[in-house]
Specification:
Chain lengths: 608, 377
């Protein structure tokens, strides 16, 4: 399938690693070198992704990004034939080359299931977990007429379709009915006129033959284990694996230049989100914590979460900072974006500015005003993507809850979101606007405003958007991936401490006492206050907070809590703006508060 | 680094251009290699499978799904007309029979004994492909379509609304920085490709649509105007299927922005010529730009089209003409000066690789490399 999988690599002989990530907008390249016996990330470069005309070959962008890295590193990485030089000899070439990709718009899928909240939800989770964008969900109860569903399949031209439905041994009729709807639609693939649309069947195993009968030779049907074999259980791995295989074999191979890229790489090319998900799961598992990760890109924003060991991933297609920036503004509305802007700006000019960024997505902000506005848009993109994630990452729907006498007054039903900001331990930000923010305070502020962490949450960022590279490197050289991850990738920004409870103008929110080696402070936080205390990397402080009634740090309303807070490049942030975060309705008051936050966090210092 | 890659828009006086005109599904090619075709000539056609109507016969005649094949009065492959009796239940002792009639005409594609569902497929839908570019048929791809080739003047815009349109080029604005307003338009623009200068106003676009202009091309448009014309906010730059009646193309961007000199002058040279335009735009992976294709008469073509042959696509280096595509210098034109290798700190605080642009006014400004676009020609 992939020539790269057959290459044998001796980890001890690997001293220079070249990795690229072909994003929808830019192709990033990094160099990892063995320095004094340790693997360190040393240089990086980037160039526009080139799946489009006139290049129409993804490897052109790779060569450009790698050339930049080579120039910065003083190492010749590309030969006269525009190919990567291997193995490394002196200051020429590299030992291995690996890549991830979300170019070509990523993997775009449709899922179909009998009931939206059950089998269709499980199918969607499997597709998202595999790194796909789910374009639409077809199900028996989606309130569309059959011909409308068929028309939708025809219009969307997904890369593949995942069909699920029925528990094993349960009803067959409905899932066969869905197959009978998909078959006559004769879905056409996006790339390549010759390849057959892959359809994965992951439903009632007893209906397999009947489903096979419904399809003819126009599609490539693959059957895997049921994603929901019984109501109370999901089995997503076989469907995810099948999606990955078919993605590599069919979809990626038909995108411009991918065959060449596949032949260059020393390990199978992974979809970027799949690689980032791998890394986040590793962090949560190793540290035994609940973690949330976000990767904000040009076209999409991916949110990953691990709560109590359960991994979920969502892709918010059309919430991004370049191609989709206009959609963020349309979804969030301009007033919602402007609530994060402390400078005077002309709305008409801003609207044109947004559209100009949409049509020329690779540009970067040169002025302070442009940066402030772009970071305001990012907050809304992140916030909207997080709402979508919370709605999706739920307990299994349709499963009866076991109740005891103690639950008598609990109204909890099935399908509750498992994402709980109070239980969140680590929040990791990645993607251009977060990774490349000129100062770390800006990254921390964007994440706090968008995700509204409650209780105590450690904030970190992917230093230079390296998580995808390391996700794939972990597959071929786990030791190198781990070393680079710990030393160069994850930058701890510090800790945010904030209570749950509504903003009440002028009222005290909580009292605090901080005790540490270098930091000893105490005081009172009034609603709307933000305070930043310097607490260096590898430093820890004891923080005791005593909330007023109506505010909760996790122990209950008004109850005192003690935290052990971790420092970082930003420090310790106390946030008394209330949760859910609301800004004052009065414009002048809001602007005054906004300016006080900007000043306190030193968000936009003058550049000399 | 003295060179870098940067995408740009093509503006070419004379180039050998080819259009690949392919059917979405296999069909018949109606022309031969070497044949001269006009822009609006149909070169290939096919029929798409008709619309599908699922009918739940089991429910309609109150029988079990397994009994449906036995109750059908037509078989798979049979054609049915509206009102034809599709199925009849066997009833009880031959009485109380239920029936169902076809509400749409079509061919019976399948009869399911599992779901009791009958799939009826409507009449095939014809799909035709026009030549779009007047020229010679260079290649016939059997069953799929053709490749047409000719010497053309070729210009790319930055964003378009609406699909393919044809007409003669007619100027409404006489200078490149004159806004296209409604008072500049009259009945003479019917069926024409109207060229403006700077921003096309919302009222001018509405007037153009009323008067039946085939297309309007100008430097910019205001976002608020576009929203009003479309009736919705454009979320992502994926367009082409809008049905305004007139195709719109902006060559520079959003706001009050004049058409680039080179683009305006080139269009001026071809005033009165028959052209084809396509507003279809997809600014994401697999980018598609709106375009204006103006075939050249043989008398106008020169043998040496060296200026096109020598162009190295996407290469940014000292001396090449560029357009700045981000504030604070948005829309300004110039040429690349120095290209320092080291990173510079911008006013925003970000570090970036930059280049010097020598503006047409002679002023030198420093901008991030990502914020310029090549003017390819």
């Amino acid at each position: 399938m992939n020539s790269a999988t057959e290459k044998k690599l001796d980890p001890d002989q690997i001293n220079v690693i070249l990795a690229t990530d072909c994003g929808s907008t830019t192709t990033k390249a990094i160099l990892i070198e063995k320095v004094n016996g340790e693997y360190r990330q040393t240089y990086r470069g980037e160039a526009p992704t080139t799946v489009e005309e006139p290049a129409a070959d993804v490897t052109v962008g790779v060569v450009n990004a790698v050339t930049e890295v080579g120039e910065l590193a003083g190492r010749k990485l590309i030969d006269e034939n525009d190919e990567i030089i291997r193995p490394a000899q002196g200051d020429v070439g590299c030992d291995i080359y690996i890549s991830t990709s979300s170019a070509g718009g990523g993997l775009q899928m449709m899922v179909a299931g009998v009931v939206r909240e059950m089998s269709a939800a499980s199918a969607k989770r499997a597709a998202l977990g595999a790194g796909a964008i789910v374009m639409d969900t077809i199900c028996s109860n989606d309130k569309r007429l059959p011909h409308e569903q068929i028309q939708r399949i025809r219009e969307l031209r997904p890369d593949m379709i995942l069909l699920a439905g029925g528990t094993d041994g349960g009803t067959q009729k409905h899932v066969v009915q869905l197959a009978e709807l998909i078959a006559p639609a004769k879905p056409q693939p996006r790339f390549g006129g010759t390849y057959k649309m892959p359809i994965i069947y992951a439903g009632n195993q007893e209906a397999t033959e009947l489903v096979e009968e419904a399809f003819d030779e126009d599609v490539k049907l693959t059957t895997v284990a049921n994603v929901r074999p019984v109501l109370e259980q999901e089995n997503l791995a076989p469907a995810r694996d099948a999606i990955h295989d078919l993605f590599l074999e069919h979809v990626m191979a038909h995108a411009p230049g991918y065959n060449k890229l596949i032949s260059w790489a020393d390990a199978p090319i992974m979809p970027t989100p799949g690689a980032v998900g791998n890394i986040l799961q590793t962090i949560a598992e190793r540290q035994g914590i609940n973690a949330l990760g976000v990767d904000i890109g040009g076209a999409t924003t991916d949110v990953f979460s691990v709560f109590d060991g359960t991994f979920n991933r969502t892709v918010s297609a059309n919430l991004g900072m370049s191609y989709s920036i206009s959609n963020v503004c349309a979804s969030a509305t301009l007033p919602m974006i402007l609530r994060w802007v402390h400078l005077n700006m002309d709305p008409r000019a801003l609207q044109n500015h947004i559209k100009n960024k949409m049509i020329r997505p690779t540009t970067i902000p040169q002025t302070r005003e442009a940066l402030v506005f772009e970071q305001a848009v990012a907050r809304e993109a992140l916030r909207l993507a997080y709402i979508q994630h919370k709605e999706f990452a739920t307990t299994l729907k349709g499963v009866q809850q076991q109740r005891t006498v103690g639950d008598t007054f609990s109204q909890e039903t099935s399908g509750q979101s498992i994402v709980d900001n109070m239980k969140l331990n680590l929040l990791v930000g990645s993607g251009g606007v977060l990774s490349h923010a000129p100062n770390m305070q800006q990254t921390a502020a964007m994440m706090i405003d968008a995700f509204e962490p409650e209780g105590m949450t450690v904030l970190a960022k992917d230093s230079i958007f390296m998580m995808p590279h390391l996700g794939v490197l972990a597959q071929v050289h786990p030791a190198a991936a781990l070393q680079v991850f710990e030393r160069d990738c994850l930058i701890y920004l510090g800790t945010c401490i904030a209570p749950r409870g509504f903003y009440k103008a002028g009222k005290t929110c909580f009292e605090y006492k901080i005790t540490g080696k270098t930091l000893n402070e105490s005081g009172e936080m009034v609603c709307g206050d933000m305070r930043l205390f310097p607490l260096g990397d590898d430093e820890w402080a004891s923080v005791s907070v005593e909330p007023r009634r109506g505010y909760d740090f996790g122990a209950g309303s008004g109850k005192r809590v003690e935290f052990k807070a971790r420092g970082g490049t930003v420090g310790l942030i106390l946030d008394a703006r209330g949760r859910p975060l609301m800004v004052p309705a009065d414009e002048s008051r809001h602007l005054a508060e906004l300016n006080s936050w900007v000043e306190e966090l030193k968000l936009y210092p003058e550049v000399t | 680094m003295t060179q870098a890659y940067s995408p740009g828009l093509q503006v070419r006086r004379q180039t050998l251009h080819s259009s690949r005109r392919i059917l979405p599904i296999p069909g018949d090619v109606l022309v031969k290699v070497g044949e001269q075709v006009t822009a609006q000539q149909i070169v290939a056609q096919t029929f798409m499978p008709g619309d599908v109507t699922p009918i739940n016969v089991a429910n309609q005649i109150s029988v079990a799904p397994a009994e449906v094949p036995g109750c059908m009065l037509f078989q798979e492959g049979d054609e049915v007309q509206v009102g034809d009796l599709l199925a009849r239940s066997k009833g009880i002792f031959g009485f109380f029979k239920s029936e169902t009639k076809a509400k749409t005409a079509g061919t019976i594609e399948s009869i399911s004994h599992v779901t009791g569902q009958v799939i009826l497929r409507g009449a095939p839908l014809p799909i035709q492909v026009r030549a779009y570019q007047a020229g010679i048929i260079k290649e016939v791809i059997p069953g799929q379509g053709v490749v047409i080739e000719s010497q053309v003047t070729f210009l790319q815009g930055i964003l378009g609304i609406g699909g393919e349109a044809y007409g003669k080029i007619q100027f409404a604005c006489q200078i490149k920085d004159q806004p296209l307003t409604e008072d500049l338009l009259d009945e003479s623009i019917k069926g024409k490709i109207v060229i403006g200068g700077a921003r096309m106003t919302g009222t001018a676009v509405k007037r153009g649509i009323e008067l039946g202009a085939a297309a309007i091309v100008s430097g910019g448009i205001d976002d608020e105007d576009l929203k009003e014309i479309l009736g919705y906010d454009l979320g992502v730059a994926v367009t082409g299927s809008e049905h305004l009646g007139t195709t719109l193309i902006i060559t520079e961007g959003f706001g009050d922005i004049a058409m680039a000199d080179r683009t305006f002058n080139l269009l001026k040279e071809r005033e009165g010529a028959e052209a084809a335009v396509n507003g279809t735009t997809q600014i994401r992976a697999g980018v598609l730009r709106p375009e204006i294709v103006i075939p050249l008469d043989i008398s106008m073509t020169s043998d040496s089209s060296a200026e096109d042959v020598e162009v190295t696509s996407g290469l940014l280096e000292t001396g090449v003409p560029v357009r700045i595509i981000r504030d604070p210098y948005f829309g300004l034109l110039g040429e690349v000066g120095e290209m320092p290798t080291e990173l510079r700190t911008l006013e925003s605080g970000s570090q970036s690789r930059v280049l010097e642009v020598i503006l047409d006014s002679g002023e030198k400004v420093i901008v991030p490399r990502a914020n310029v676009e090549l003017i390819e020609g």
